Description:
single chain; mainly alpha; two-stranded parallel sheet; 16 helices; 2 strands; 65% helix; 1% strand
Amino acid sequence: MPRNPRDWLVQVASRRMTEQIRSEHARRRREELVGGQVPADQRSAPGADARDEGTHDDTLGLLFLCCHPVLSPASAIALTLRSVGGLTTDEIAAAFLVPRATMGQRISRAKQRIKDSGVPFRMPDSAQWPARLDAVLHVLYLIFNEGYASSTGAELRRVELSREAIRLTRSVHTLLPDNTEVSGLLALMLLTEARGPARTGPDGELVPLSEQDRSRWDTAAITEGVSLITAALPRGRVGPYQVQAAIAAVHDEARTAAETDWPQILALYGVLARISDNPLIILNRAVATAMVDGPAAGLALLADPPRTLTGHHRLYAVRAHLHELAGNREAAVTDCRSAACRTASLPERHHLSLRAARLAAQAGT
Length: 365
């Protein structure tokens, strides 16, 4: 309970109002940007029998538009997340594991590079979409992640973001039904979002996967996700979204946490590590290794983490979990406290602080 509940409520309400105003301004900018692509003398509704060369979804069209060909993939993704996804610079920086100032400079340089290039900033036609598809999928992936596990603020989830990411990915899947990575990404989102209702307790507190009430999981979403990834895997080159969806499917198909097929998950993380450079894979792989070969083996994988993970709260959170599995409660308390100090998510901080207190009481420290 805050010391002054009234002031706390006023402050939260003020921030929510600011977020709503920013969202409304972003929506208007998107509409103006789309409108500016059409000459004034052509602004009329097409005939009912006219062939649609693209998509009726303006937001999806803007995603392809902002993934501009003169930009590097990282810059295009950052700019699109800011301009179309509505994420703040802090949230984008957290997704890329870089400082806020670095991300702010990257977005500014991306805007300037488009301006200096002289290449028209216009809506691509359907023939140009495949060249921009990887960046668009990455944008949708990061928007979904921020919605499913918000990196900042008082809410654990931002359901409006995760649902919008799923909606847009469905639109891409409708346009490109034979693309196995699009199918994989949609499956990954569905299989992950299916666990959403069980991720929070009665008071909004975080509930870890191993402690969730699996009867609250969305079985329809799991069925659809499993069907998508089962159909996609044999059809072509396997990409990172398909592998992550396969891992999510193994988790979702386990009736209890104890029945989870950890050897299969570990093998899948081995495949994922070979085709993706995402440093967070190391953390998940360490957990899977600990569940198969023991916590010492998992901790050994984290002995020399990549520089991008140094100081990141998830590194300390995973190490705390593995130390707890190993029975080293004092080390677990230290890492739990370090993780709690480094996360900007209030529900995560609360969960980690309570966990540290519980472990400290058990250790007598």
